[in-house]
Structures are given as C-alpha cells and as structure tokens.
Amino acid sequence: MDDHTPLKQTPLHDLHLSLGARMVPFAGYEMPVQYPAGVMKEHLFTRACAGLFDVSHMGQITIRPKSGPIEDAALALERIVPVDVLGLAEGRQRYGLFTNQTGGILDDLMIANRGDHLFLVVNASCKEADFAHLKAHLGESCDVEMLEDRALIALQGPHAECVLAELWADVATMRFMDVAEAALHDVPCIISRSGYTGEDGFEISIPASHAADVTRRILEHPDVMPIGLGARDSLRLEAGLCLYGNDIDTGTTPVEAALEWALQKVRRTGGARAGGFPGSDRILADFATGAARRRVGLKPEGRAPVRGGVSLFADPDGNTPVGTVTSGGFGPSVDGPVAMGYVDQAHTAVGTKLYAEVRGKYLPVAVSALPFITPTYKR
Amino acid sequence: MLKFTDEHEWLKIEDGVATVGITSHAADQLGDLVFVELPEAGATFTKGESAATVESVKAASDVYCPLDGEIVEMNPAIVDDPSLVNSDPQGAGWFFKLKLSDPSAANALLDEAAYKELIA
To answer: Is domain A292-379 in CATH 1.10.10.10, yes or no?
Structure first.
C-alpha cells in the first residue's frame, strides 16, 4: 500500500470522532489509537471492568460448500490450514494459521463452525491476500465471500459477560471459543467468546448499518470504556499473543513461534489426517527435531522498555548474538516492561539471562514464561 | 526568560542556566510516559543532539538539547515517576538544567506567542 491510497473508515468512524479518539493510519484504515483517557487507563480499565474495541478493519469471510455437507468445506480448508477443522463442532471456534510452502505463516486467523458454513476472521493487513488464497484453493468446491457489510467489535474484561447479559441473558451459557447468534437491541449479531487481551470477553459481528447504534448503547454502560489500538497492543503483549507481521510472518514456522498447540494431533505425524498442508514437511520435521530458534517471553530487569527490532546477546558486551525482540513495550498491568522475541534454542530456558542492545547499552532481560498475566478465559 | 523550540521543548533561562523540559503539547502527544532516561551532570551537548529519551507505552522519543551547553543538574523525580512529565510538564516535570555556552543564542528561539502559533 503506498502513502497515497486513501484510508478506509470503519462503520464506527463517526463514533470514534465523537468520543475524542486520536485517529492513525493502520492496515489501510483510519483507526483510533487512543481515546482521551489514554493508553494506560484504557489498558487497566479493560483488565478491571470491560473495554470495547473496534476491530472492523479485520476481514470476515464465509466459506459455504457449493453442494454437500460442511465437512466438505472443512476438509477443503484443511488443505491450506494445518489445524483440525473437521473436528470443530458446530458453534465452536478455533485458532488457525495459513502456512506457505516453506512452512512460514501467511496469516493467523479464527475459524468458526456456523453449522452450514465456516466463518473466518483474518487480519486486516492480510485480508485481500487471504481472500485470494482461499478463492484459489477452495473456489471450486466452496463459495468464499468477504463480508463487507459487517462491523466487528470486541468487548473484553471481567465485566464483559454481565454487560452483555443485560442485552442477551443466555450469554452466560457460552464458554471460551463458543460462537452463537443472538439479537442485541433487536439487531442479529454473531457472538464469539474470544478475544485478544487475555481476558474473558466477546467478539461481536454486527451488520454495518446498525453497528454504531449497538456500539453506542453498549458504551453507555458505566462498566464499559472505548479502547484504542495502543492498549490493544499492550494487552495482547502481556497476554503473550502474537501480532502478525511482528511476532509471526512468512519467515517463522509454527514450531519456531511456539504455536504447536494450534496444530492438533490429528494433523501431526501419526495423526489420521497428518500433513497435507503447505510446508508440512518442514513443519512436521520441526515437531520431530525441535526448531533451531523459538519465540519466548522476555522480561527486562530494569524499567526501560525493550522494543521490536532490538538485538539480543548472550553476554553483556554484545559479542554473542542469540536473537531478536519482535514485540516489546510497557505492560501497565505488569507495571514494567515486557517483550517477546526469537532466541536460539540453547538460550530458551525460562530464567536464562540475556542482554538487549538499547541505545548502545546492553540491558539485562530474563527469558520468561508467557503470558505475563493470568488469563481469565471461561473454559 | 521563557523560550521554546520547534522540537517542543521549553527553556526557562536565569543567569545563563536554562531549565529544560517538554511542552504540554508534546507531553499530550506522547501520551502516558513510562520511562525517562536523563543525561548525567557534566555531559556536554551541542544544539540538536539527543540529550534524553522518553518512552510512552507505545514508543520511544528523543528529547533534543535546545542549545549548546553543559548539564549541571537533572531531575531525578521524573526518573522515579515518569507520569510527572504528563501531569506537570512545564513545572515539576522539568528534565535538566543546562549551563549555556552562549546565552545570547537563546534570543533566536521562539517566544511563547510564536510557539503557540506553531502548534495552533
């Protein structure tokens, strides 16, 4: 995308402006980076009450089998996604990846079984490429459609359930990664119990024409505050969740990225539907032998944030490079800097002391377990 | 004498020593600060050199030395509590005191009216 491409706006654009948001370009959209409360308060409010995020820039895609059962669509998708789609029950969602021939990651996504079709949510910056990829590989057997007429919001935090229960009592019956359809203020919405903050919460797909109205009414609740991309990033970083383009990309394999959990046993060596996805040779070999490097959490010992791109060394003089930080910043809930990055296998044990080169100094950081906070998913 | 730079620093100059900080406008643009790195007393800088670093939740930014000079004092309070820079940027949130090599050079900086016009 060049600098002259006009930025797109989400259906909630006017609402953001009315709330005093500071808007920035992000993945081709004009998006709120923060509201007047600021990143710190927005982050802490999400973990204490409930934060509302506009994530309408993300791609919402449906896959419907042209004839036959949904299993046909699931098996078709399994040819480009190394996860168990066939075993995904109706009303359930799971995390997935598009891989390439060398085992790299083209995008990460959510896949839901909606009964007669699959419903995907993909990253904004990849959505056109993902859509073309899906059309190319599934187009013969399935109708693949990008839903341009829907907004997507996330309501995240310990009060998210009770806020939503005032609009739809049955929300309490949902558990983590359930997907259901319900009317909120008489508007039919698709609701999943999931998110990108480490908190219990929901992502809600709303018809664009009613999105601002529904969102405004949820925001009227005293336990809800609008949250920008700034706090979205610090929340997901504390939760140890990857940001596509920073922590995972076409040059990282799922095993290097410590995402083995995303590949169910049925798709691994010895499983009933092992392999059969792009890059399976490399990825399954990584499972067998371990990868040469691995994504780990990094906890700087001092107060200085250690950010993406910073080089990591085994020694305090910077003689032995062992890796690179891919995401880093300040964690308001941790009340200190937090980061993640890739380090050579020999240095991945929790507690290993490494040194991050920041402004000419070598700052001590400890390899740390992820996440940095305790998730509160309702499993 | 109160002066400003187009890099959004303020200078309060008394007897050839400038107390330097960042403006309210800059503090507001940076957002919540979480880390401040200050120069050591005795360090010398030329105008435009990076003399301090501030980090918000989102990003790191340089604070440039507004004139040639030597650091004679720094403000440890903002290292202990970077949020002071957000809450009182042109008071308790000052960064350092700079003994100016050439006090007359300050005349070329912006006065308050010119700075207000710059950020308008």
So the answer is: no
